[in-house]
Amino acid sequence: EVQLVESGGGLVQAGGSLRLSCAASGFRFDDYAIGWFRQAPGKEREGVSCISRSDGTTNSADAVKGRFTISSDNAKNTVYLQMNSLKPEDTAVYYCAASWKCGSSFEVWYWGQGTQVTVSS
After folding, report:
1. Under a CB-based contact definition with an 8 Å cutoff, are residues 97 and 69 in contact?
2. If you compute the radius of gyration of the chain from its CA atoms, what whole number of angstroms results?
3. Average pLDDT of 79-89?
4. What are phi and psi of 84, to 5 degrees?
5. Are 36 and 21 in contact (CB under 8 A)?
6. How far from chain centre, in Å, is Cα 118?
7. Residue 7: strand pairing partners
8. Is the distance from CB of 24 to CB of 4 less than 8 angstroms?
9. What are the residues whose beta carbons fall under 8 Å from the beta carbon of 52, sequence distance 6 or more?
């Protein structure tokens, strides 16, 4: 049974930092991708950043480039999203998701439950 569990969300002031974690379990193979998505109230989910677990290839949305960094600790089966210079518009529920590969054609296999990030002015 595949499970993705997010943690690390919370309340932070603008300009602050948070580190989100996505712990994966139950995969029967190693070469999959983990993407971070977010959803603000009244808006659709949008892609934030993605990493290929097998080769470390990453990409990020323009809105977070230079501020957010995605990384993977394969030994711990955990993907991280380091979020720096946070802005109020980053406020959302953040979800991780698993798929075969990163890119515009990312097809979600599994979603985590999400973790709330709130950035105050």
Report:
1. no
2. 13
3. 98
4. -115, 165
5. no
6. 15
7. 21
8. yes
9. 31, 33, 58, 101, 102
Average pLDDT over residues 67-91: 96
**8 Å CB contact between 116 and 6:** no
Residue 42: its pLDDT value, please? 94
Using an 8 Å Cβ cutoff, are 70 and 49 in contact? yes
- The pLDDT score that the predictor gives to residue 30 is 83
Banded pLDDT at 106 (limits 50, 70, 90)? confident
Beta-sheet strands, E only, within the chain: 3-7, 10-13, 18-25, 33-39, 46-52, 58-60, 68-73, 78-83, 92-99, 110-111, 115-120
Across the range 16-34, mean pLDDT stands at 94
Rounded Cα gap, residues 81 and 118, in angstroms = 15
